[in-house]
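Listing S7. Sequence submitted for prediction.
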Amino acid sequence: DLVLQLDEEADDTDEILGGAVVEASTVDWKYVYNQLGAALTEYIGTDTHVTIPASIGGNKVIGVKKNLLKEKSELISAVEIQAELTSLPDSFFSDLGGLETVKLSDTIKNMGDYTFYRCGKLKTVKLPAELEKIGYEAFEDCSSLEEIRIPEKVREIGGWAFVWCSALKKIELTENLKVISDGVLPVKWTMNNNKF
């Protein structure tokens, strides 16, 4: 059953959908929609493995709200993004203390700032082939992250992206990088004992 109500408050979902929206919910999600598509606003389910769907209520998911999963930070251990998103908002996965695995949509081109900030149990993440930018402090304090491969299309890595990633042993970079900001590599890294 859907609960419908006109949403008159402006927020980041209005920017995604370009104006007036209708609120709705399912067993797992609160979301808004209009003629352009849907934007997920809150995860209200109880599953530890969360799938961000390609569509909801007959509407294509074209956006997600910042901190969408934060209210369930200790519950969630795995996330799969099926929605054909082109970017992840700032802090999208930040502070998800139980998050261990992530499967991102291949359509994502931009990871916002603090995307995986303080996801202490995250060991590996496969970045999408279409990714072009990794935001500021994107993986900061992912203390279990062991290795990461930067896709060929990435042109920019924001500052402090991998700082405090104490378990990180390998970063595969691309020759196409144009901007590597200050502090990208983990603290105490040297070229002698780590590959990059």
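Caption to Listing S7: primary sequence and predicted structure tokens for the chain studied. Residues 39 and 63 are 4 Å apart (CA to CA). The two ends are 51 Å apart (CA to CA).
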